[in-house]
Amino acid sequence: MGRLFLVDLEGSSYSCKHCRTPLALKDDIISKYFCSRNRRAYLFYNVENVTYGPREDRMMITGKHTVADIFCVVCGSILGWKYIHAYVKAHKYKEGVRC
């Protein structure tokens, strides 16, 4: 999600790249070094001002997961996804986090 977020220069919050709606605080980050299929991504414990798409099974780099896409509540831009279920035991820690 790194490319989809606009980082405030103070480094204390993250907001939508398109409409600047506040989404998360610096303290909500689990990892800045997560990799998605196409780019670097951030993992968050919590995000605000978002809506979720339907749950779907998706084959990711690390195996099959049930995820829901995340959209900005103001402009509707896709921001990333939420892990609902990890089928591989080693990736259970992702359940409930947002990317």
Per CATH, what is the topology? Metal Binding Protein, Guanine Nucleotide Exchange Factor, Chain A
Strand order of the largest sheet: 1-2-3
Element order: H for helix, E for strand: EEEEEEEE
Tell me the number of strands: 8
Question: What is the arithmetic mean of pLDDT?
Answer: 80
Distance between the termini: 6 Å
The helix fraction, in percent, is: under 10%
- Bulk shape: globular
User: Helix/strand/pairing class, anyone?
Assistant: mainly beta
**Sheet bearing the most strands, described?**
3 strands, antiparallel
The CATH class is identified as Mainly Beta
Poorly predicted sequence stretches spanning 5 or more consecutive residues: none
Oligomer: single chain
Please give the count of helices.
0
Question: Radius of gyration in whole Å, from Cα?
Answer: 13 Å
Instruction: Bin the strand percentage.
Output: over 45%
Report the CATH architecture: Beta Complex
Q: Could you please describe the fold and organization of this structure?
A:
By secondary structure, the chain is mainly beta. It has a single domain (5-94), classed as Metal Binding Protein, Guanine Nucleotide Exchange Factor, Chain A (Beta Complex), CATH 2.170.150. It is 0% helix and 54% strand. The protein has strands spanning 5-7, 13-16, 22-25, 29-35, 40-44, 50-60, 63-72, 78-86. The protein has a three-stranded antiparallel sheet with strand order 1-2-3, with no helix packed on it. The chain has a three-stranded antiparallel sheet with strand order 6-7-8, with no helix packed on it.
